TrEMBL record:
Similarity remark: Belongs to the UPF0434 family.
InterPro entries: Trm112-like
SUPFAM superfamilies hit by this protein: Trm112p-like
Organism, scientific name: Plastoroseomonas hellenica
Database matches in PANTHER family: PROTEIN PREY, MITOCHONDRIAL (PTHR33505:SF4), ZGC:162634 (PTHR33505)
Top-level lineage group: Bacteria
Gene3D superfamilies associated with the record: 2.20.25.10
Entry protein name: UPF0434 protein GXW71_24430
Length: 62
């Protein structure tokens, strides 16, 4: 965790991760602690610094 309570994710990891549904790019939402797939409309949680890339664990975006 960083000093402000958000979860830090290794930038090198973010460079290689893609959405498991669309295989498209993800963007990191530091405040929410999620990886966002705009194309799939899903937000994947990050728990203890580990992205949970399971579609069943993702939150649907409004």
């Amino acid at each position: 965790m960083s000093g402000d309570g958000t979860v830090a994710v290794d930038p090198r990891l973010l460079e290689i991760l893609v959405c498991p549904v669309t295989k498209g790019p993800l963007r990191y939402d530091r405040e929410a602690g999620e990886l966002i797939s705009d194309k799939a409309g899903l937000a994947f949680p990050i728990r203890d610094g580990i992205p949970i890339m399971l579609p069943d664990e993702a939150r649907k975006l409004d």
